[in-house]
Amino acid sequence: MIDNDILERVLAEGLRTGADFAEVFASDWRGTGVGLDDGKIEQLSTGRNRGAGIRVIAGETTGFAHTADLSEAGLMAAARVAAEAARQGGGGIKVVALTTQPSRIVSPIEIDPSTIGKAAKVDLLRRVDEAARSAGGAISQVSAGYSDGRTRIVIANSDGLVAHDERVRTLLRVSAVANGDAGMQTGFDSLGHTMGFELFDKVQVEDVARAAAGRALTKLKARPAPSGSLPVVIKAGSGGVLFHEACGHGLEADLVAKGASVYKGKVGELVASPLVTLVDDGTMTHEWGAIAIDDEGHPSQYNVLIENGILTDYMWDYLRARKEGRPQSGNGRRQSYKDLPMVRMTNTYVLNGEEDPADIIKDTPNGVYVAHLGGGSVNTATGDFVFGMTEAYLIENGEITEPLREGNLIGNGPQVLRDIDRLGNDFAMGNPGTCGKDGQGVPVGDGQPTLRVKSMTIGGTAS
Amino acid sequence: MSTPDRSAELLVIAERVVAMAQPGEQVEAYVSRGLSTEVRVYEGEVEHFVSAQSEGIGIRVIKDGRTGTSYCGTLDPSQIAEVLAEARDNLGYGEPDEWSGLAEPDGVAVVPQSLWDDNLENTPTVRKIELAKLLEKLTLAGDSRVRVDDSNYSDAFGEAAVATTTGIRVAGRENGCYLSVGTLADDGDETQTGFGFAVGRNVDELNLERAAREAVDRATRLLGATKPESRRITVVLDPFVTAQFLGIIGGTLNGESVVKGRSLFAQRIGEAVANPLLTLVDDPTNPLAYTATDIDGEGLAARRNVLIQDGVLQKFVQSTYSARRMGVTPTGNGLRGGYGGSPSAGCLALQIVPGLRSQADIVAGIDDGILIQQVQGLHSGVNAVSGDFSTGAAGLLIKNGTVGAPVREFTIASTLQKMLLDIAEVGGDLEWLPMSATGVSLVIHDVTMSGA
C-alpha cells in the first residue's frame, strides 16, 4: 500500500519536533452490505474507506492526525500535524530504518468474499427470510443483513517495525418479530467469523434464521421475569459477555493505570472462584475477535488473565507496556485509521470445567436459565455490570420450565466471579460481538461452558 | 475574521454527480466534510491531542423502484465516478418497492438558525488545551476525595450538501464545542464514578464551574451506596436519565417501525398513550438543542413536529419512504449516519414540554421514592418492540420528602407503555444536554425496583 522508503520519511517527519515515537497505521477497507426487510431486498451497498492515522508520542503526550490521502504529501502533512500536537520543544533529525516483519496468518481465507457475485449474497438473505417465516405462523416480520469486509493494513513505527496484515470478516444477522395475543416479541441471532465466503459452506443460514425466529416465538408465551436475587445458570456459549463485562474491561491496563478498575493491585490474588480460568486469545482461528497482529503491529497472543481463580495479568498495549517497562500482549486495537489504539479484548473465554451441564440444572431447585444474552455494560471502577437476557427460562425443581420476558441482570464483577459455583464441560463460543469503549467499536468474541452463579439480581417485574 | 462558507463547493460536487443521471434514474448525492479536535488532559498534562479530518460521498440510485447505494471516504473525482457506477450496478440486486423514491421539495421553508460561530473557528489551540486543564483543576478543587479520570475538550465542524434529480439542492454547515470530565471518588476501599459536561457554539458559552460541580456531586453522592430491597416504588428520573428514556420513546414513534410492523404505537394515532402531563415534541429548529439542524439527511427543511400532545399520540416521524408508504406528509426526519449510511426515519431533537416545579420541590412531595441518577444497560435491557424495560441503576433514596441514602447495583423495570401512562409529574428544570433529547426531572409511579 505504501513503500517502506516513504514510511521512513513520514516517521522521521513525525519525530522532527522532539518526539520519541512515531507510528503510521494505514488501512484500505472495502466492503459489501445487503439489507433485507419486510420481505424485500432493500438495497445493496458497497463502500470503500482508506487512509492513514499518524501517532506521535512525546513524553506523556500523544499527538494524532489522520488523512484519507495516502500520497507522500498527504502523509507528510498529517505527520506534521501530529508532531505539532505532541511538540516537546526538542528537535533534530532522527533516522528510521524499517525491517519488514514476516507476515503471519491466523485465520486463512479460502474464498475472498469480493470474488463472489452480489447475487449469491442476496440469495443468502432470501433463504433467511423464507426459513424464518416458515418457522411459525406468528412470525410477522423478518429483517436480515449480510456484510463482508476486507481490510489491508500496514503499520510502521519509529522502533523500526513494519508489519502487514489482511483481514476478512463475514457476518450475517437475523432479527424476527412474532405477533401474539400479548403483543410483539423479537428474536435475534447472528453468525460472524474471521473467514471468507466459505463460512456458508460450513453453516446453513437457515439454522441462524430458525434460531432467531424460535426466540421470538418462545417469548410469545413468556411471563414477566422475576424481580430479585436468584441462582442463574448460563448456557454454554451464551454468557461469555458476562466475563467480558464482569472483569474483562477491568483487566485492561489503561483503566488499571488510572485507578479506574476494581482489579487494580490484585495480581496474584484470588479474584474469582477457583473453577475459573479466563483467557484472552487473539490467535483463536476464525473467531470474530481473531487477529494476526494487533493494530500496533504486535502479534496476537494467548493470554491467561485468571488461572484457577487467581489474577495472573492484565492486557496491554504499546503505551501502557512502555510505561511499565514490560512486553505488550497484542491487545492494542482501534476501530479504524481515524482512531487512536487502546487496550482492547480479542476473544475472551472461560476454559472448560468438569461437570455434565444437565447436573448443574438438576441441582438448582429454583432459579433462572439464561439461554441467550444480549449486550452488556460495566462500570469498571465500581465493578457493577449489567447484561440483557434475550432468551431465558425459569428453573423450577431442577427443571427448565416457563420462558421469561426480556430484562437486564445486574451484578458486581468481583462478587459474581466468586459466586460461580458450578462449571460445565460443554465449552462453546458465543455470537460475534462489537465491543464499545471510548466511542470505538471493535470485533470481539466470547465463550464459556454452562455455569452457575449462585446469586444474581434479575431485573424483572414479577414479585 | 469570518471563515468563508465552503459548503457550496460540496454542492457543486453533488450536482455534478446528479447531472450524470441516465434516463429513468433518480440519483441522490450526499457529500460531507468535517474536522474535529479532541484534547484529553490527565494530571495537568495533555494525554492526547487528536486532529481528525474526514470527507466522503454517498450516492443512491433508484430505478424502477429498485435502490442501489455506494460510498467512499474521499472526494477524489476518479473515485466518485466509481462510486456512481457501483451504486448503479448495486440497484440491479434490490427488489422493486413501489414507495421507493428520493425526497422532493415540499415547499416548507428552512427556519433560519445560527448553527455556525466564527469565534469557535478562530479559537487558538492553546486556549482549547487550557480549558481542559482548567476543568480538571476546578473539578479536583471541588472535593479532596475526587480524582479525575480524564478531562476533555472537543470541537467539531461539519458541512454537507445534498442534491437530487428530484430538485433538492441544499448545503449547510455547523460547528460546536464540548467539554467533559470523568470523576472517581474514593472512600476507603470504595470507588464511585461521576461525570460532568458543558456544551456551546463557542468556548465562551462553556460553563466549566457547573460541569466541575456536577462531576464532583455525581461521584461523591454515591459513596457508601448499598443495595436496596426489592419493591415497587416511585422513581424520579434525573434530567440526564429522562433524556435517555425519551430517546427510547422517540425510537418507537417512527413511521418506518410502523410500516414494517415493529411499533408499539401503530394504529394508535389520536389515542391517549401517555399521561396527559406529557407533551413531546421533536424540534430541531430550536438552536438551543445540541442536535439542532436546518435540513434533514434527505435535504428537506427540518421542522417542529408535535408527537404527543397532552398524552395523545399525534404523529410519527417520517423519512420520505415511510411518509409515502403511510400516505402522510413528510416530517423532515430523514436521519443519516454520515456519507456511508442511507437515510431512515428518526427523531432529531426531542423535547418534553417542561412543567413548573424544581426537582427539590418535587422530591419534597414524595414519601417513599428513589432519585435515579445513573442508568446502565439501556441497550441490553430495553426492547422497543415488545416494550419491556429493565435497566441497571444507581441513585438516592427519597424518604419523607428528603433525598438520603445512596443505593446501587439494582434494576428498575416496567414496560414503556405503562411508564408513559404512569408519569406523575414533569419537572420545570429543563436542561439542554449533549444528546438528541432534552432533560427534565420526570416522576413515574409504580416501577419495580430489584435489588437484594
Number of domains of chain B: 2
Number of helices of chain B: 11
| SSE ordering of chain B | HEEEHHHEEEHEHHEEEHEEEHEHEEHEE
Compute the CA-based radius of gyration of chain A. Answer: 24 Å
Largest sheet of chain A: 7 strands, mixed
- Number of helix segments of chain A? 10
**Low-confidence residue ranges of chain A:** none
Biggest protein-protein interface?
A: A-B, 78 and 74 residues
**Level of helix content of chain A?**
10-25%
The separation of the N and C termini of chain B measures 61 Å
Unreliable spans of chain B are none
Whole-number radius of gyration of chain B? 24 Å
Oligomer: heterodimer
Number-wise, the strands of chain B total 18
Secondary structural class of chain A: alpha+beta
- Overall average residue pLDDT of chain B: 95
User: Roughly how many Å apart are the termini of chain A?
Assistant: 61 Å
Mean pLDDT level of chain A: 95
Q: Using DSSP, what is the number of strands of chain A?
A: 23
Principal-axis shape of chain B equals globular
Top keywords for this entry?
heterodimer; A: 463 residues; alpha+beta; seven-stranded mixed beta sheet; B: 452 residues; PmbA/TldD fold; six-stranded antiparallel beta sheet; five-stranded mixed beta barrel; 11 helices; 18 strands; globular
Descriptive notes:
The complex is a heterodimer of chains A (463) and B (452). Chain A is an alpha+beta fold and 463 residues long. Chain A has helices at residues 4-14, 72-85, 118-133, 199-202, 205-220, 240-248, 253-257, 318-324, 357-362, 413-418; strands at residues 21-37, 40-58, 61-67, 99-100, 139-157, 161-180, 183-193, 227-234, 278-281, 302-307, 310-311, 332-333, 342-343, 347-350, 366-378, 384-396, 399-404, 407-412, 420-423, 428-429, 433-437, 440-448, 451-459. In chain A, strands 1, 2, 3, 4, 5, 6 and 7 form a seven-stranded mixed sheet that branches. In chain A, strands 9, 10, 11, 14, 20, 21 and 22 form a seven-stranded mixed sheet that branches. In chain A, helix 1 runs parallel beside helix 2 (72-85) and helix 3 packs parallel to helix 5. Chain B is of the alpha+beta class. Chain B is 23% helix and 36% strand. In chain B, the strands form four sheets. Chain B has a six-stranded antiparallel sheet. The termini of chain B are far apart. The chains are: A alpha+beta (463), B alpha+beta (452).
